[in-house]
Amino acid sequence: MAKYTGPKAKLCRRFGENIYGPQKYDKILSKRKFPPGQHGSSMHRKPSDYSLHLNEKQKLRYTYCLLERQFRRYFQIADKMQGITGDNLLKLLERRLDNTVYRMGFATTRMQARQFVNHGHFMVNGKKVDIPSYLLKPGDIIEVRPKSRGIKPLVEAWNNSEASSPYPWLTVDKENMRGQFVNIPNIEDIPTTVDMRLVVEYYSK
């Protein structure tokens, strides 16, 4: 399973926001409101046009915990689809099984969600799926496998999640540890601080 294994706090400081979720990164950002590195606290140089585009692309890529090759492939797919490329890209990323597991509250981070999926703890429409990049379709049912319902990290995350999904394209059933991917989300419903226009322009140059 290829994934980023470097320091996550430095990435949050680099982008100036908590892209991973856990509150510990909010605490770090409140104490160190400047980029990492020896000159991070004193650097006031205006970023170049290329730097702005790269930063937005990297922020989106790291938010969804993807390597460059994976991310570029999603962009190529989105670019061939009808509609706005940036919107298509964001919707594709939201359809990933690991992201949906995270959004539903089965995991505290997307990385943890990916690990849970990789270990075969989830079923889609009654069949085990251990591919984090599996793209969900409207109506798909996601649930924890019966044998996995006692796993402590999963249970803790689920118990601390909200009683109902805060995302209109998802529903959750707390009692039965399941949820439904109701429909492909509307772009205005997807929470993001990324300027998708800059991401598209980065790959279009």
Task: Looking at this protein, list some descriptive labels.
Structural Genomics Hypothetical 15.5 Kd Protein In mrcA-pckA Intergenic Region, Chain A, ribosomal protein, 9 helices, 30S ribosomal protein S4, 2 domains, globular, 205 residues, alpha+beta, ribonucleoprotein, 5-stranded antiparallel beta sheet, Ribosomal Protein S4 Delta 41, Chain A, domain 1, single chain
Overall residue-averaged pLDDT value: 87
Counting DSSP H or I runs of 4 or more residues, the number of helices is: 9
What is the SS-derived class?
alpha+beta
**SSE series:** HHHHHHHEEEHEEH
Q: What overall geometry do the principal axes of the alpha carbons give? A: globular
CATH architecture of the largest domain: Orthogonal Bundle
Identify the strand order in the major beta sheet. 2-1-3-5-4
Alpha carbon gap, first and last residue: 30 Å
Q: CATH first level of the largest domain: which class?
A: Mainly Alpha
For the biggest sheet, the summary is: 5 strands, antiparallel
- What is the CATH superfamily of the largest domain? Ribosomal protein S4/S9, N-terminal domain
| Count of the separate structural domains | 2
Radius of gyration: 18 Å
Helical residue percent? 40-55%
CATH topology of the largest domain: Ribosomal Protein S4 Delta 41, Chain A, domain 1
How much beta, percentage-wise?
5-15%
Brief digest:
The chain is an alpha+beta fold. It has helices spanning about 10-15, 25-30, 50-65, 70-80, 85-95, 95-105, 110-120, 150-160, 195-205, and strands at about 120-125, 125-130, 140-145, 170-175, 180. It has a 5-stranded antiparallel beta sheet, covered by helices on one side.
